[in-house]
Amino acid sequence: MRSFTTFNIQYAHRFYNFKGEAQYLHGHTGILSIEVEDSVNCGVNMVFPCNEIRKIAWDLIRNFDHALILREDDPLLPAVLDVYEHQNIRHGAPTNTMCGPAFHTALATAYPECRLVVTKETMTTEGMIKIVHDLLKDKLNIARITFHSGDNAATEEYCVGAKTMDRCPCCGILFGPDGVCPKCGCRKQ
Predict the structure, then answer these.
(1) Residue 26: inside a domain, yes or no?
(2) Cα–Cα distance between 176 and 168 in angstroms, integer?
(3) Once rounded to an integer, what is the mean pLDDT over residues 5-27?
(4) Three-state DSSP class for 133?
């Protein structure tokens, strides 16, 4: 069975070296859905609490919300960073409260202090799905990710197989590395 949650993400990007309207800097409202698959936890009668999926995923995904997403070879990137430096906001500002933890993967690097994500590939709906899966594959049993951005959409299914996550029977969330539920304190038996 599956549980899923949805995120609304506002972002700006462009398709560097693309011949068409998307070569210009523009913005989108993106809708990201993450489906998690597992057995129904009989203690709480759910696969995975949707608010916990949201918490785990949002911690990293919020770096994309109200952010500029550019490919690493885009000539706008140094120009944007230079402007941020001259405005004294390159390393953050007190009003920048939406930032999540920085990350660096083979597909993307988040610079939350300046609301910027730099990607290896052009940021398409398919690219967003690849990045999100890469960020969350070890944290959730992801069965499907769907991303809508403007008129564009893509989806990817993943084989979870018999893999199950070790979850608390009282609240359904993942046990911590010490075998204790971080939410309710229940110990793994």
Answers:
(1) yes
(2) 10
(3) 93
(4) helix
**CA torsion through residues 76, 82, 88, 93, sign:** positive
In a domain, 169, yes or no: no
Query: What CATH number should be reported for the domain holding residue 51?
Result: 3.30.479.10
Whether the predicted pLDDT of 172 surpasses 90: no
3-state secondary structure of 69: strand
Task: Supply the pTM of this predicted model.
Answer: 0.88
Distances (CA, A) of 27 to 3, 21, 31, 123, 153: 29, 12, 13, 12, 15
Kindly state whether residue 133 falls inside one of the protein's structural domains.
yes
Q: Who's near 88: CB < 8 A, 6+ residues apart?
A: none
* Residue 166 domain-assigned (yes or no): no
Q: Which residues constitute the domain of residue 12?
A: 2-157
- Write down the mean pLDDT value for the chain: 91
Instruction: Say how many domains are in the chain.
Output: 1
Strands (E), 38-141: 67-71, 103-104, 108-111, 116-119
Joined tokens for residue 51: 């608010």
